[in-house]
């Protein structure tokens, strides 16, 4: 039966694939739409929850297909309300997702890969090395499993940021497939403007993202003010240096409501001087840019420290004086190793 050729997980299949699947079981196409609605809009966690479908169809699918969420092996709760989930995937590999509730919204920080190949010198995920890409189903599964675990109701204001483990633009087809389902009002129903991908700056992939019909917002991890400094922190800069990165950013087609976001991890004595701030302003001055300054989140194995808060504020002021909106982002979940750059599968919190 054709259905048995599928991965076995309905999660991650888009509308067209589910319609084809229904047909392969001898059902009408619209049964595929009912599957789609049940899995993503109603968030049924197993086949028995797909109550629109006939019992016969469910029984026919059951030996071949399931709705398989990543398994929450452990979770760690921060004093500030953030929760770090350690998910086990069907092949035994693990990824992390962070839940960050706020008064008027909830943000989920999603992983796009198991581990990461980019070897940024300040990032703990880098210590894991490259393992593999996540599937669209594994990406959507992080959202649905956390929402189920935290009882986030459908209709709640949800922000999704691909700032967890991995480089989303090195897994662009699966990330875009997942975003298509997550941002579909008939699917999971997250507002497209509330989804962001963060990248080190894989230039051909940024150009590809620019053409995607359903594209999330783009954030770029700048982290340095000149090439020598950036190459020392982020080896990818040797392949895609700043001048090329900024050329691609200038050509990037922003929508009317959109800014280009730049993240800048603040490392004491390394990239936090007034001169760095002036150079960043020179780099970004002619872009419709916003900057998020992220004080470095520490961990034992890496040799960096966050600057004193006054230094970060002085850096911010230089950018703001040059009319670049700049915000200081204090990472949440530091006490449970859930903050930016800290995701490295540590088994404690
Ligand atoms: N690979 C993507 C997404 C993951 S990293 C990217 O690099 O953009 C998400 C953000 O966390 C990046 O801006 C990165 O620069 C930042 N980050 C990494 N390690 C950090 C650390 N130890 N402290 C603070 N921010 C960190």
What would you note in describing this structure?
The chain is of the alpha/beta class. The protein contains eleven helices and twelve strands. It has helices at residues 15-24, 30-41, 55-61, 136-149, 172-182, 203-210, 227-233, 236-239, 242-251, 274-284, 309-321; strands spanning 71-77, 83-88, 94-101, 106-109, 113-115, 130-133, 158-162, 195-199, 217-221, 260-266, 289-295, 326-328. It has a ten-stranded mixed β-sheet with strand order 1-2-3-4-7-8-9-10-11-12, covered by helices on one side. Strands 5-6 form a two-stranded antiparallel sheet. Helix 1 crosses helix 2 (30-41), helix 4 packs across helix 5 and helix 10 (274-284) packs parallel to helix 11 (309-321). It is globular and about 70 Å long. The N and C termini lie far apart (46 Å). Mean pLDDT is 93; it is low at 1-6.
- Report the radius of gyration as a whole number of Å: 21 Å
Q: Give start-end ranges of low-pLDDT stretches.
A: 1-6
Strand share of the residues? 15-25%
Helical content (DSSP H or I, runs of 4+): 25-40%
Which structural category do the helix and sheet elements fall into? alpha/beta
- Summarize the helix and strand pattern as letters: HHHEEEEEEHEHEHEHHHEHEHE
């Amino acid at each position: 039966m054709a259905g048995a050729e599928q991965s076995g997980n309905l999660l991650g299949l888009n509308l067209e694939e589910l319609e084809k699947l229904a047909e392969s079981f001898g059902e009408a196409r619209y049964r595929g739409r009912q599957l789609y609605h049940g899995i993503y809009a109603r968030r049924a966690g197993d086949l028995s929850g797909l109550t629109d479908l006939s019992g016969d169809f469910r029984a026919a699918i059951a030996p071949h297909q399931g709705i398989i969420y990543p398994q929450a092996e452990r979770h760690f709760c921060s004093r500030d309300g953030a929760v770090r989930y350690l998910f086990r995937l069907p092949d035994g590999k693990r990824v992390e997702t962070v839940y960050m509730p706020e008064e008027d919204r909830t943000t989920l920080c999603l992983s796009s890969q198991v581990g990461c190949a980019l070897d940024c010198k300040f990032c703990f995920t880098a210590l894991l090395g490259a393992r593999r890409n996540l599937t669209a189903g594994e990406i959507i599964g992080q959202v649905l499993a956390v929402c189920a675990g935290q009882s986030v109701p459908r209709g709640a204001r949800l922000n999704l940021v691909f700032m967890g483990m991995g480089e989303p633009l090195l897994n662009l087809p699966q990330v875009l497939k997942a975003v298509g389902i997550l941002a579909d009002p008939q699917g999971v129903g997250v507002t497209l403007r509330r989804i962001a991908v963060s990248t080190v700056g894989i230039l051909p992939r940024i150009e590809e993202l620019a053409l995607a019909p359903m594209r999330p917002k783009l954030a770029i991890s700048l982290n340095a003010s000149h090439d020598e400094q950036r190459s020392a922190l982020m080896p990818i800069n040797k392949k895609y240096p700043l001048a090329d990165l900024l050329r691609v950013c200038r050509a990037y087609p922003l929508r009317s409501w959109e800014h280009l976001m730049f993240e800048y991890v603040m490392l004491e004595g390394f990239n936090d001087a007034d001169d760095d701030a002036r150079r960043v302003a020179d780099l970004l001055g002619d872009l419709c840019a916003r900057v998020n300054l992220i004080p470095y989140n520490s961990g034992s194995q890496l040799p960096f420290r966050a600057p004193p808060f006054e230094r970060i504020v002085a850096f911010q002021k230089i950018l703001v004086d040059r009319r670049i909106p700049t915000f200081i982002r204090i990472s949440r979940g530091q006490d449970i190793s859930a903050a930016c750059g800290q995701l490295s599968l540590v088994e404690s919190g």
